[in-house]
Amino acid sequence: MAVEGLVAVSSFSAPRESLGVLDAETAAALVEGMADIAVVLDDQGVVRDISFGSDELRADFSADWIGQPWASRIAPESQANLEALLNEARQQTMTRWRQINHPTTRGTDIPIQYRALRLRDQGPIVVIGRNLQGMAALQQQLIDAQQALERDYWRFRQVETRYRLLFRMVSEAILIIDAPTQRVVEANPAAGQLLGESPSRVIGRPFPEGFDTEGMHAINGLLAGVRAAGRADDVRANQLDSMQEFLVSASLLRQENASFLLVRLAPILSAPSTSTLPETKARYLRVFENAPDCLVITDPEGRILTANSTFLSLAEIPTEQQARGESLDRWLGRPGVDLNVLMANLRQHTTVRLFATTLRGEYGSTTEVEISAAAVRNGERPYFGFFIRDVGRRLNTEQPTTPEQTRWLDQLTDRVGRVPLKELVRESTDTIERLCIEVALKLTGDNRASAAELLGLSRQSLYVKIDRYGIVADQPSDPPGPDKKDRS
């Protein structure tokens, strides 16, 4: 038998021959045996008879169902499902399964899945139910397990966050090395500073690297011993460039099927009498730290490697640790412009003198400064030294007027009334534009590419304006090349 709109039900091919004629008692026993709860309803939905499949289920329900409307024993949220079940039973021989909740004497609801069967036209409706308490318990266990997994996940995330924060803030240099390949997997900022690189550049590189031959042999022996026995004695190694001596220790860390080496680098501070630095260089370092002008050393990308206390005071930074690894552009007056101009001139001329700009502090203060800089070659990676001088106190609040500006203003006022205002404005705009280009060329040492960036123009636009105003550079500039869209 297939009922339209319902799940197909396969019927007996010859029920009379196979089952014969069942009497009422046999049919009742069959229904009672196959159902957890069976209810017989009249056409009005009143309970005429009821059967429970277990004593536990009987104890959960009140005994006064017979003679009462079945709807009075249904939870309010299941009334719609009950109406749909009875309406379908009046129209079809057999209904689909629907879930109905019943309140119990214990104050809880029991979910029952029902299917209804009308015996004959205008006859009683037999409703067969399956107890879903076991499935509901399994669903609740699944929900509890999911919530436990969610809590464990967020607990793990919090532990990982604390680990990351501790890993970044610890003052000791720590590296996590992949044991089979001896390549750096993670490095904290302190390790990057000691090795003269940012942590992101250290990751993926082989370890040890940058130490002298004896030190590399010692570190390799240390790592081999830790891999074999789980521990080994600390070793000493000298860095190749600075000859700084480190105490290197390592321990084995296992995670699932992978093995890692936790390596700690601790710089060994020599006593003043046995210092590896010559006395002359030691004096230079003391002067560097106590200089009244700001002294900053950066890598080729402009990230700060070290800075003296004067710069920290002017930039309103509490400690040098907070400045290391940051771009110097963060504190210069024109972000994205000043540092690019300085870097371009340093790469081309190796020195820059008296570059005027401003220095912005962390708390909003602004200081007029002059910057001189020099590029120091150190193999393939040069270092840039910036000498920043506070000139705010020696600058007047108003710049003095030059004789050329005075003549231009006098000529402008004399022509008022004789020349239309529109023409005066056009000529004034040209004069101001020419003066701005001359100032930009002066600030950048006649470097036209840097001057164009300073003015917000493309190179081609700047070249056209220079030719138009007949501006003559003091020294040859860079050749023109392809450029981006004009930003003027």
What does this structure look like?
With 488 residues, the protein is α+β, with helices and mostly antiparallel strands. The protein has four domains: 15-131, Beta-Lactamase, CATH 3.30.450; 170-273, PAS domain (Beta-Lactamase, 2-Layer Sandwich), CATH 3.30.450.20; 277-390, Beta-Lactamase; 403-469, Arc Repressor Mutant, subunit A, CATH 1.10.10. Helix content is 38%, strand content 22%. It has 16 helices and 15 strands. It has helices at residues 15-19, 24-34, 55-60, 79-91, 133-169, 189-194, 199-202, 213-229, 279-290, 309-314, 320-323, 338-349, 403-414, 421-443, 448-455, 459-469; strands at residues 37-41, 47-52, 98-103, 109-118, 125-131, 173-178, 183-187, 235-238, 245-255, 258-267, 294-298, 304-307, 351-360, 366-376, 383-390. The strands form three sheets. It has a five-stranded antiparallel beta sheet with strand order 2-1-5-4-3. Strands 7-6-10-9-8 form a five-stranded antiparallel beta sheet. Helix 12 (338-349) runs antiparallel to helix 15 and helix 15 packs across helix 16 (459-469). The radius of gyration is 43 Å and the shape is elongated. Mean pLDDT is 77; it is low at 1-7, 271-275 and 475-488.
Number of domains: 4
Determine the oligomeric state from the structure: single chain
Number of helices: 16
CATH topology name of the largest domain, in short, is: Beta-Lactamase
CATH top level of the largest domain is Alpha Beta
Strand order of the largest sheet: 2-1-5-4-3
Low-confidence stretches: 1-7, 271-275, 475-488
The percent range for helix content is: 25-40%
Radius of gyration: 43 Å
Domain PAS: 159-205
Pfam family, one: PAS_8
InterPro entries: Biofilm_reg_signaling (IPR052155), Homeodomain-like_sf (IPR009057), HTH_Fis (IPR002197), PAS (IPR000014), PAS-like_dom_sf (IPR035965), PAS_4 (IPR013656), PAS_fold (IPR013767), Tscrpt_reg_PpsR-CrtJ (IPR011785)
Protein name: Transcriptional regulator PpsR
